[in-house]
Design brief:
The protein is of the alpha/beta class and 468 residues long. It folds into two domains: 116 residues, Urease, subunit C, domain 1; 324 residues, Metal-dependent hydrolases (TIM Barrel, Alpha-Beta Barrel), CATH 3.20.20. It contains 13 helices and 20 strands. Strands 1, 2, 3, 4, 5, 6, 17, 18, 19 and 20 form a ten-stranded mixed beta sheet that branches. Strands 7-10-11-12-13-14-15-16 form an eight-stranded parallel beta sheet. A hairpin with a 2-residue loop joins β19 and β20. It starts with a strand and ends in a 19-residue tail after the last strand. The relative contact order is 0.18. The mean pLDDT is 96.
Length: 468
């Protein structure tokens, strides 16, 4: 199968070129200066005319939670529905999180996630491993998993009694990562202190969703981020902060990076677009739609502007979604009487590429930086680059044709995620996904899904390319 994408502007992390891209079966095999095929000498079974459009490497979302068990329920997107939604939004690879909780065997937990995903995904997928109980057995499994292509491990400084690790456990895991080359992914919030404030708030009758954001103070994210950086420094390990939301946390990351440390961070669209007052603090129970951890931050500080600046300066290296969807009915409603019981998560895997593209429209980011944060750096950070994250001969033929002239308004009615609402309802979008090619196969065209369940394959990952 030969597919030619012609007449488009190819956007890479390093610039913009005018090239036609030839794919044979599942690989990119050649790139030609536009006009080379003026006489039709390059044969192809499928020709896609991308004139006036951008040709970008498929998006890589390195932080999703399909079918995650949380608070007595499960994230509402399956690996099938969630990856189809991702594909509609121009994402062609996800890295999801396999979960080990206290008292469980790491290998058995990982096998459970393999079983959930196998034969279900519309796009390629990989796993990080959540370690919810760090003991000698888990530390030994870290070596085994790295050898098997699972090269990153997530730890939690929040959720005591569920995922929480104390400083000693974190230090031991970081020491292991310094030996085997793994990346430590950190959820940095002071969960012990948060639980105290949450209990006090409920005792005062403050049970509405907005109090979820008030008790999870940005200072607690800043403190935990700094503490994790110091632990990583002592252990000689890299650390990657997931879903960074607060200026205080960004300051700690920037300071460490200025000192040349292997410290990295991602942010998510919700922290760039949504806020505590208008969304989490919406009247009645509406704010439950926006309950996630860390929470949305107040618009009266500078979090939004600081995060956009962090993306420009590379103190924020990646944009992911932390896609963890729950329906309002029967799921978010579990917390009607107590915000602590609201399942944490916001749906967003479908909208990441287009929401961050608005940064280009607004003058916050360049086109190459958009591609870098949404595709190239995620691939480099988590051991997929060369196969993913770039349009170049030898890479997988994961290509998105993006139309900068398109316009639409985000709506639950037209989205594909398995939820009963959209967190970004009513946001007007400049630009949009035109065509999505996954491993040489057109899976999205004219707004429709043309793939088949199980098209996506599991990816064994190498080590991060950013460690020095």
């Amino acid at each position: 199968m030969r597919t030619l994408v012609k007449n488009g502007s190819v956007i890479s992390a390093t610039g913009i070129t005018e090239h036609d891209v030839l794919c044979v079966d599942n690989k990119i095999v050649a790139m030609y200066e536009t006009g080379t095929d003026a006489l039709g000498e390059i044969s192809a079974d499928t020709v896609i005319d991308a004139a006036g459009k951008y040709v970008v490497p498929g998006g890589i979302d390195v932080h999703t939670h399909m079918e995650l068990p949380f608070g007595g329920t499960f994230a509402s997107d399956t690996f099938e529905t969630g990856t189809i939604a991702a594909a509609h939004g121009g994402t062609t690879t996800i890295i999801d999180f396999a979960v080990q909780t206290y008292g469980e065997n790491v290998r058995e937990c990982l096998d459970r996630w393999f079983a959930k995903a196998e034969g279900q995904c519309a796009i390629d997928y990989a796993f990080h491993m959540i370690l919810g109980g760090i003991d000698d057995a888990a530390l030994k499994e870290m070596d085994t998993l790295v050898d098997e292509g699972i090269t990153s491990f997530k730890l939690f400084m929040a959720y005591p009694g569920v995922f929480y690790s104390d400083d000693g456990q974190i230090l031991r895991a970081m020491q292991k990562a310094s030996e085997n080359g793994a990346m430590i992914c950190m959820h940095a919030e002071n969960g012990i202190a948060i639980d105290v404030l949450a209990e006090q708030a409920v005792a005062r009758g403050q049970t509405d969703p907005k109090y979820h954001g008030i008790v999870r103070h940005p200072a607690f994210e800043g403190e935990a981020t700094n503490r994790a950086i110091q632990l990583a420094l002592v252990a000689g390990a890299p650390v990657y902060f997931v879903h960074l939301s607060a200026s205080e946390a960004l300051e700690a990351v920037a300071r460490a990076r200025n000192e040349g440390r292997n410290v990295f961070a991602e942010t998510c669209p919700q922290y760039l677009y949504l806020n505590l007052e208008d969304h989490l603090g919406a009247p009645g129970f509406e704010g439950a739609k926006y309950v996630a951890s860390p929470p949305l931050r107040t618009k009266h500080h500078h979090h939004h502007a600081d995060l956009w600046q962090g993306l420009r300066t590379n103190d924020l290296a990646v944009v992911s979604t932390d896609h963890c969807p729950f329906c309002m009915k029967d799921q978010k409603e579990l917390g009607l009487e107590d915000f602590r019981a609201i399942p944490n998560g916001i749906p967003g895997v479908e909208h990441r590429m287009e929401l961050i593209y608005q940064g280009v429209v607004m003058g916050e980011l360049t086109l190459p930086r958009w591609v870098e944060t949404c595709s190239t750096t995620p691939a480099r950070m988590f051991g997929l680059y060369g196969q993913k994250g770039v349009i170049a001969p030898g890479a997988d033929a994961d290509i998105v044709v993006f139309d900068p002239k398109a316009k639409h308004t985000i709506s639950h009615k037209t989205a594909h995620m398995n939820t009963d609402y959209s967190a970004y309802e009513g946001i007007e979008i400049d630009g949009g996904v035109d065509t999505v090619i996954s491993k040489g196969k057109v899976i999205i065209a004219d707004g429709d899904y043309h793939g088949t369940k199980g098209d996506g394959a599991y990816l064994r990952r190498g080590l991060s390319q950013y460690l020095v």
